[in-house]
Amino acid sequence: MQNALLDTIALEDAHTSGAYVKRDVQIVRGQGARLEDAAGRSYIDCVGGMGAANLGHGHPAILAAIQRQAAELMVCPELFHNPVRAEYQAALCAAAAMPRVFLCNSGAEAIEGAIKATRAATGRPTIVAAMRGFHGRTLGALSATWNKTYRAPFEPLLPEVRHVPFNDADKLADALDETVAAVIVEPVQGEGGVIPAAPGYLRAVADLCRQNGSLLILDEIQTGFGRTGWLFAHQADGVRPDVLCLAKSIAGGLPMGAVLLGERAGTFPPATHGSTFGGNPLACAAGLAALDVLVTGDLVERARERGAAVLDHLRAHLPERAVRDVRGRGLMIGIELRGKVGPVLAALAERGVLALPAGRTVLRLLPPLVISDDDLWAAVATVEEVLSDAV
Which pTM does this prediction carry? Predict the structure, then answer.
């Protein structure tokens, strides 16, 4: 077994692109909120597929939908009508209270589509984004992303992009003019440190956009599909975006993304945008099953309730000598440390919990919404132990 493990690691290291810094763990299977490595060790999954596994691993409804659709039809471009796609588009638009949707394959693709849609609708070139925001790594999405480490090797990027402080409506107002097509923000900044929008901020952004004739793009790629305790995080703020970007958990783990278009965004001009695999029947079937699980079950409400309980517990019990802040919404939790997060991630893995960073000093927890209470609180206890040992 050990030789097979080393052979796999060596083989992957020999041929991988170099873009990823890999951890010394080989994951071979998963079930629910548990992952298993090649040596048979079980881990509580608080990585959650980097946000793509809200329904966990091996969810029976997702598996059944994939198996059924794979046997019938997997590929059908949007040159042709398809019943599964039609049903999914209608269901997703109804859930988001938006009339139209463009289906694609990833979050970065969704952001690219949103930039094009808002430029086409307004005839304006400029995009305003938030400092510390993350929107993807393709060139348009990267232009809206703040982190200079991601941006610098690929400059020059799109020139007409401005960044303003997050949660500062006054600075946003100063940045708006007749050239601004859209403002793009996350309801909770994920990669930027798990920073929620302040009460009233999204409403202020929406109002400023309307006054300026600009469109509001909400990036809910990570916050969507129940993660924050609402089907979509902006629903908690009573805000309706002009464009809504979705991906990650949209199809229960299959690659998929979506750009939902409100009335002010209109539609794409014919033949101006497209995607070979976008709206393929396999992803649509999985998406329809995932949406049904979230809409008809209690996972979203439980994420809100259990997330609030976890946040309260961590705020009360984590040592101040090791922790600056605990923040988040639902089961999207960030713990800002006084030191670097890398050693904490390694210590958690040694104790059977896999988690994420959100920058150099923030520990991010994204457990699947299907996680059992026992596993959720075991993960919380392990975080407490590791951070207590760190001081």
Answer: 0.97
